[in-house]
Design brief:
Radius of gyration: 32 Å
Helix content: under 10%
Strand content: over 45%
CATH class of one domain: Mainly Beta
Structural class: mainly beta
CATH architecture of one domain: Sandwich
Mean pLDDT: 89
Largest sheet: 4 strands, antiparallel
CATH topology of one domain: Immunoglobulin-like
Distance between the termini: 111 Å
């Protein structure tokens, strides 16, 4: 008997419910993976952090960090800030976008930052929803020099939001003068060296770091003045050892790049003298006092044209906010016989027409400091009348440059007032005052509310105040 050949039988298995569910899930996952691959990984981009949060300084940068490396052009195109602010977008790394305001943010204002949907990563991923946050700008701060009776003066800051005052610098040999950057992020100051020379240094107000900007060998470098875009600083440099009888030579205007530290003469001709250089707020002009003229040399940076303004006072003056007018002190005489005193004069840099802001030469008054309001409509000045309105010290007045009308702002015959500085809103002035008739008196820093006239003391034993956004 022969066995019949064995024929394999096909057995059909009937899947149960669990198997069907497993297969379906696998198919869904496979489809999802395939979709991600075909879509170029277009999901998953998000903002993982941002600053500022809550309250910000007027010069603080705005930063947002993404979970993926971003396409610079795409992400920048989706950046919005309201109210609108001029500024620069800078990538700190592939994930972090920073916005640096070109002008200080407005105190008390609430700003909203939005990264709109559609911003792409370098791999094609997109931000699916708008990312948005808001913050409020704190009150500006006041910086000043102190103590006035010490050989080594340093910089201090008063923060009105916290009520604190703190020391910014600790220079052993002291600081002579300083200037606040237009964007409010840094201070340039004159650092005294142990060998009798001086240099321009930089204080970063964000991280409190300091560094030298110049290396003035056998020279005095001081009087820093910021370019409006905060990228360069003009200053005066006087060589030691070549002055006739004084050991100090004539000052020339120099310029240093904050980022590269490259330095050079501000004016092309090395024979041109230049003290106390200043920039116009709109960046169109630069000026310095040329002792060889003597007078103020104003250069139009677009055309290279120069305007020469004769004056003996040795002070460069202050530009109007639009850069079209320069106000400066001049020496006059007439009201007091042969005695000289100072008046204020303004020159229109387009027409070169001069206006005697203090009146004719024989007008019995002294005007000195002048500070333009941010909108250019008024000048805060220090004035001392020489007639029956006489006061021993200068008082603070507001002068309309169009009508020449003045109104008193701070008048107290017991004090002398100086060093005026407007806040960015044009509502307050910070100034220096000194009580007269007291041998032990020290200068003080005060603020006046322009609308109400209310006075607030910032610091005693302090001088040379400036606003910091």
């Amino acid at each position: 008997m022969h066995d019949e050949p064995h024929t394999p039988r096909r057995i059909r298995l009937k899947p149960d419910r669990f198997d069907r569910a497993t297969i379906a899930l696998a198919l869904v996952l496979l489809a999802a993976i395939t979709g991600v691959v075909l879509a170029g990984d277009r999901v998953g981009v998000a903002a993982s952090g941002h600053t500022p949060v809550g309250v910000a300084g007027g010069a603080d940068p705005i930063r947002v960090r993404f979970t993926s490396a971003m396409s610079p052009h795409s992400a920048a195109a989706h950046f919005r800030i309201t109210p609108d602010v001029p500024g620069d977008l800078i990538w700190q790394d592939a994930h972090t976008l920073a916005f640096w305001p070109r002008t200080p943010l407005i105190p008390g204002e609430t700003y909203t930052v939005t990264i709109t949907a559609g911003a792409e990563s370098v791999h094609g991923a997109t931000l699916l929803d708008d990312f948005r946050w808001s913050f409020t700008v704190r009150e500006p701060r006041v910086v000043y020099l102190a103590p006035p009776d010490a050989l080594a003066r340093n910089l201090y800051m008063a923060d009105f939001d916290t009520g604190q005052t703190f020391q910014l610098t600790f220079d052993e040999y002291g600081i002579e003068d300083y200037a606040v950057s237009p964007n409010g992020r840094a201070l340039a100051y004159t650092h005294a060296n142990p060998d009798g020379t001086s240099d321009i240094w930089l204080l970063d107000l964000l991280d409190q770091s300091t560094r030298p900007l110049t290396n003035c060998v056998d020279a005095l470098c001081n009087a820093p003045a910021w370019k409006p875009d905060s990228t360069q600083i003009a200053y005066q440099r006087a060589e030691l050892g070549d002055g006739a009888g004084t050991g100090i030579g004539h000052s020339r205007a120099w310029i240093v790049d904050v980022a590269t530290l490259a330095t050079g003469l501000l004016f092309d001709d090395a024979q041109i003298l230049g003290a106390e250089p200043v920039w116009s707020p709109d960046g169109s002009r630069v000026a310095a006092f040329d002792a060889a003229l003597p007078g103020i040399r104003v250069r139009d940076l677009a055309t290279g044209d120069e305007t020469l303004i004769p004056t003996l006072q040795g002070i460069t003056g202050r530009f109007s906010p639009d850069g079209q007018t320069l106000v400066y002190p001049v020496l006059v005489r007439g009201a007091l016989g042969q005695e000289f005193y100072t008046h204020l004069e303004a020159v229109d840099l387009q027409t070169v027409e001069r206006v005697q802001l203090s009146g004719p030469e024989d007008t019995p008054l002294e005007d000195s400091d002048a500070a333009w309001s941010p909108d250019g409509s008024r000048l805060a000045i220090t004035r001392r009348y020489l007639d029956e309105r006489f006061t021993p010290g200068r008082q603070i007045y507001l002068l309309d440059p169009a009508t020449l009308e003045v109104e008193p702002l701070v008048v107290d015959a017991a004090y002398n007032h100086a060093v005026l500085s407007w806040d960015q809103t044009g509502t307050r002035l910070v100034f220096q005052r000194l009580r007269l008739g007291q041998a032990e008196a020290q200068p003080e820093v005060w603020i006046v509310d322009v609308a109400s006239g209310d006075l607030t003391q910032v610091a005693a034993g302090a001088f040379s105040p400036r606003w910091v956004p």
